[in-house]
């Protein structure tokens, strides 16, 4: 599909510290006597204060790629480097936020946020200060003593984000974190995430099926195709060269044109 909006098919050179470097990654499952190739020749770099959204149809390997970045799975070939160190297992430099919050139901919200800090043996006084800071950042100070079942879906996901941020990871991986929320809550969470991202300057790798969500959030958009999973487009988000007034973003004249462009790109048969 042709579009009058400039879409660069290669990412621009970024003059920021590199956080993640994926080089020639293949990933295959053993299937009877043959291997089933899930990912093929993935090459990808992520930088500080980038919010990279990944789009693609089901089965294109988005979640497999996230699991490799997290250290939950190992590439069949190739390497993943996090801040210059090879990623071979889960570690505190990589935080993960899943579709469901996965909070400990028996712990209060503040205790959930504190949990990772205790595992890192942070002092009690430091933990108290950090928990207070992150509760404020996600606007949950008034809910600090509540249990997860007493919170709405959006509040629980904000608590999960705060728990991830508290351990100060180098990169945050988010696997469709808002897909289970209703439309109004999802929109509010998108704005919360942009606020948090701008304040923390974190590198975020965000998987979504929603093209509009990617256009609202991303500084950079990656499109993957399946069979096997591979990157077919890696581009700066043209709408993010300058921020638009909150609440009017989706009415910008370029928004619908870019939405159709990315939908067509996802549907292309390569």
Automatic annotation (TrEMBL):
<dbReference type="InterPro" id="IPR050166">
    <property type="entry name" value="ABC_transporter_ATP-bind"/>
</dbReference>
<keyword id="KW-0067">ATP-binding</keyword>
<keyword id="KW-0813">Transport</keyword>
<dbReference type="GO" id="GO:0016887">
    <property type="term" value="F:ATP hydrolysis activity"/>
</dbReference>
<dbReference type="InterPro" id="IPR003439">
    <property type="entry name" value="ABC_transporter-like_ATP-bd"/>
</dbReference>
<dbReference type="InterPro" id="IPR017871">
    <property type="entry name" value="ABC_transporter-like_CS"/>
</dbReference>
<dbReference type="InterPro" id="IPR003593">
    <property type="entry name" value="AAA+_ATPase"/>
</dbReference>
<keyword id="KW-0547">Nucleotide-binding</keyword>
<dbReference type="GO" id="GO:0005524">
    <property type="term" value="F:ATP binding"/>
</dbReference>
<keyword id="KW-1278">Translocase</keyword>
<dbReference type="Pfam" id="PF00005">
    <property type="entry name" value="ABC_tran"/>
</dbReference>
<dbReference type="InterPro" id="IPR027417">
    <property type="entry name" value="P-loop_NTPase"/>
</dbReference>
<protein>
    <submittedName>
        <fullName>Taurine ABC transporter ATP-binding protein</fullName>
    </submittedName>
</protein>
């Amino acid at each position: 599909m042709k579009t009058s909006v400039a879409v660069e098919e290669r990412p621009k050179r970024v003059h920021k510290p590199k956080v993640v470097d994926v080089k020639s990654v293949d990933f295959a499952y053993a299937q009877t006597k043959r291997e089933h190739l899930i990912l093929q020749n993935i090459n990808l770099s992520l930088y500080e204060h980038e919010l990279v959204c990944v789009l693609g149809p089901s089965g294109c390997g988005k979640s497999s790629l996230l699991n490799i970045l997290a250290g939950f799975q190992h590439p069949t070939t190739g390497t993943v480097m996090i801040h210059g160190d090879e990623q071979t297992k889960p570690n505190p430099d990589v935080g993960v936020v899943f579709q469901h919050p996965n909070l400990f139901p028996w712990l209060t919200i503040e205790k959930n946020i504190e949990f990772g800090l205790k595992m890192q043996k942070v002092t009690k006084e430091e933990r108290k200060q950090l928990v207070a800071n992150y509760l404020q950042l996600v606007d949950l100070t008034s809910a600090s003593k509540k249990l997860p079942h007493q919170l709405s879906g959006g509040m629980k996901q904000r608590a999960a984000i705060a728990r991830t941020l508290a351990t100060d990871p180098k990169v945050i991986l988010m696997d469709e974190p808002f897909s289970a929320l209703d439309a109004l809550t999802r929109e509010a969470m998108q704005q919360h995430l942009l606020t948090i991202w701008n304040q923390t300057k974190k590198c975020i790798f965000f998987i979504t099926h929603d093209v509009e969500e990617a256009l609202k959030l991303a500084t950079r958009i990656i499109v993957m195709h399946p069979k096997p999973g591979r990157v077919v487009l890696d581009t700066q988000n043209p709408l993010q060269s300058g921020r638009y007034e909150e609440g009017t973003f989706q009415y910008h004249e370029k928004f619908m044109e870019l939405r159709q462009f990315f939908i067509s790109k996802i549907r292309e048969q390569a």
